[in-house]
Structures are given as structure tokens and as C-alpha cells.
Specification:
The chain has 114 residues and is mainly beta. 0% of the residues lie in helices and 46% in strands.
Length: 114
């Protein structure tokens, strides 16, 4: 059974930064398109960024220029560097494959507030 473990969230002031990590217990990680998703209270889960096996990235317009997704295939880990955070970035952040065919992890809470 695949396990996804997200970490790195917290409380940060507007304009601050956080780096999220997601470790996967799956040997096929390196060939999968991985994504970071988020779900704010009362809203549907949305795709924030994705990265393919060779590092090509795509971002949602709302985070373009502020967030950077990266991966370390040797560690089965995907990262999300979040800069210039805004209150509207407040959400629980999750990682998963682009196909959403792995079980969701517990997520990591990001709260942006002064």
C-alpha cells in the first residue's frame, strides 16, 4: 500500500515562505507525474502545481511566480517552495500523482495570517 506523508506546514505571516515536503513509499515514484493539491475550508481540492519525471513543471495561475515544485527521485520526495504567501493560500496541502491513483495522505496545514 502506497503511503504519502506530507510535512512542513505551519503558521506564517503574509509575505512569508514555507517549504513543504511529501515522501512516497512507492518504487515507481520516479516515473510518475506528481502534484501538489490544496483544499481550503468550504472549497474543493485544487491542483496547485505538477512536475513530471524529468522536471517539467506546470502551475496554477494563482501561484505562478510564487511557488516552485521540485522533486528528488532518489528520495522519493516532492517539494513545494512557497514564497510571498497570501491569506488566500491558507489550506491543507496534499501531494498525489496527477492521476490521483494513490491514497491521500494526511496533508499539512498552511495558515497565512497576521
Amino acid at each position: 500500500q502506497v503511503q504519502l506523508v506530507e510535512s512542513g506546514g505551519g503558521l506564517v505571516q503574509p509575505g512569508g515562505s514555507l517549504r513543504l515536503s511529501c515522501a512516497a513509499s512507492e518504487s515507481t515514484f520516479s516515473v510518475r507525474i506528481m502534484g501538489w493539491y490544496r483544499q481550503a475550508p468550504g472549497k474543493q481540492r485544487e491542483l496547485v502545481a505538477r512536475i513530471n519525471s524529468i522536471g517539467i513543471t506546470v502551475y496554477a495561475d494563482s501561484v505562478k511566480g510564487r511557488f516552485t515544485i521540485s522533486r528528488d527521485n532518489a528520495k522519493n520526495t516532492v517539494y513545494l517552495q512557497m514564497n510571498n504567501l497570501k491569506p488566500e493560500d491558507t489550506a491543507v496541502y496534499y501531494c498525489n500523482t496527477y492521476r490521483l491513483d494513490w491514497p491521500w495522505g494526511q496533508g499539512t496545514q498552511v495558515t497565512v495570517s497576521s
